[in-house]
Amino acid sequence: MNEPRKFAEVAVGLPVQSTFHYRVPARFQSRIGVGQRVMVPFGHRRLLGVIVDFVARPEVAAVKPIDTVLDNEAVLEPDLLQLTRWMGRHYQVGWGETIQTALPVPFRRGQSDTKPREEEEPAPLVPHEPPRLTAAQRAVLEPIQKAIETGEHQIFLLHGVTGSGKTEVYLQAIRTALEKNLSSIVLVPEISLTPQTIERFQGRFGRKEVALLHSGMLESRRLQEWKRIRSGEARVVVGARSAVFAPIRSLGLIVVDEEHEPSYKQDDSPRYHAREVAIQRAVLNKAVVLLGSATPSLESYEKAQRGEIRLLELKERVEEIPLPAIDIVDMRQEIPRGRHSFIFSRKLEEAIAKTLEEKQQAILFLNRRGFSTFAQCRKCGHTMRCRSCQIALTYHIETKEMICHYCTAAVPAPELCPQCRSGYLRFFGTGTQRVESELAKNFPHARIARMDTDATRVRGSHEKILGAFRRGETDILIGTQMVAKGLDYPRVTLVGVISADTALNLPDFRSAERTFNLLTQVAGRAGRSHLAGRVIVQTYAPHHYAIQAASRHDYRAFYNQEIQVRKELNLPPFSRLIQLVSRSPSAPKGLAFAEKAAQELRKHLQGQPVEIVGPSPAPIHKLRRQVRWQILIKTAVSDKIEMTVGEALKRLHPPKGCHLAVDVDPL
Ligand code: ADP
Ligand code: ZN
Ligand code: ZN
Asked: 429 C-alpha vs ligand 3 centroid, how far in Å?
């Protein structure tokens, strides 16, 4: 027998963990339920909230009534309610905020869903038959299938070199889930969501069965897909980070491809990591998690070492295609030739020439866009910096502008030094645009394309550039990390890394890991067919262990060195970090608050296994005219500490004009 639902417990979109009680007016009785959105009075405002439960007795006497019920059915299933509550606690943000993140964008704004679902006739598609698995693939697939079939929560880490057939394993695991009437989510980094990737899933399961969710889609289109998932029409969801919240009812499997990718971490609040959320969601649903990577995160691999997750390995590429040979070029040994900068070593230049001669293709990689990375006056030493961020401005040749890569502010590039008015302003450092222009000078007949955020600003240009490259209309593709992932073109026989040091020099304890990953991924673009591939890596640090291990395709060697460093310095995965960044337009006020906050934290966390560092200037001290200070909390790895720190954080109240951002497990 249903009790009358007198009082509802509502999570509202505020940065608070607590929920609030509201009276359910009689007129809503018949149509109200958990997981539906409501509008509720809150102070002088009306807020959007989601019903998380019903209670017999409210906490407060003067309980207000619900204004409006926006949905006729739940927009969040119980497992997503539980998941978002866990996220709120874990990432130290409000439950209402994590709920908002899990909803389609129009639903976050309190829009009602009135439009019926549009029926769309999907374009025809050539179905792909699954290939016969190799013995190695069968060996890794078997335990995954078994876990899916027995409905047991289990986490697997599939460590497989690039081109070892991981995706094929995902596809067959999804098939197993479908046979048990279970749905799957496949998380893919945003930049790997190429038409090629999408086709692979649709070709196997059909367009109707596969739903896509990524930020490049129009909101209305995303909502359509959301409904197709919810209705059970599409049981395979392929998408970027936020697809982890897909409204699936019977979840069997979550695949996290390229699980080491930093883009799985959302960089504004709530700062969740999709891999961690995926694991939590799988726990709640007794589903299987399959993490895949050629370069697993230290966190996941360490868990596999401890037996917390099960390691599966694919050590060779399918069809015995060898991994490409990697040559390291020591740029300190390069003799300057002519007036020109040292962008291309002799070795790389010769390799490019040979590739062109043989009518094959090359990819050149540089993780910096723009033309030059800074402008300095040779007379007075002035460097051009962003007025609001104090970051050196990057010269962009196409628009003849100096651009701040943090806040995107742009000024026309001056002819004269803005400080001493001399004509000695010079541009230093190499970006992708400069590589492009130098390359065009050296190889005037080569067909060159560039792929970076500047070149792909217009919707569809990404596909256009890759399409031309795939059809062989381009000989050389230059790009930032956009070209490092997932591209699989048989005629690419040369990959050149212009500078392996850009990631290595970042002031971040993960810089070695980033460098190893990036080099391995980029190298994986070469020699994917029977045409042998070759990789040339230019560096000023040829003996660094990350570069050495990458050149030998030796993940274990890298891991063993790096985990030692982490252990000695008590860094993740041996500890957890929580970063607090205060920002305010007034420098003294911001610092005063940060100092007070650090003091309070030290007081409240005294005697706990917690270390507090700071406040110190944040790595980007000034951003968009705001001054930023950071406090780093390093804790032991335990849920109990998480709660204790959470309690301490709740006591911090930034004064007016000051803002405090909390980032749990920052990247
Ligand atoms: P990864 O995801 O590890 O990079 P893929 O699954 O993309 O590897 O496989 C690499 C290439 O090998 C793809 O072109 C894929 O179609 C092909 N392939 C994978 N498994 C097999 C198999 N068992 N037999 C033949 N070709 C395969
Ligand atoms: Zn000057
Ligand atoms: Zn700026």
From this structure: 19
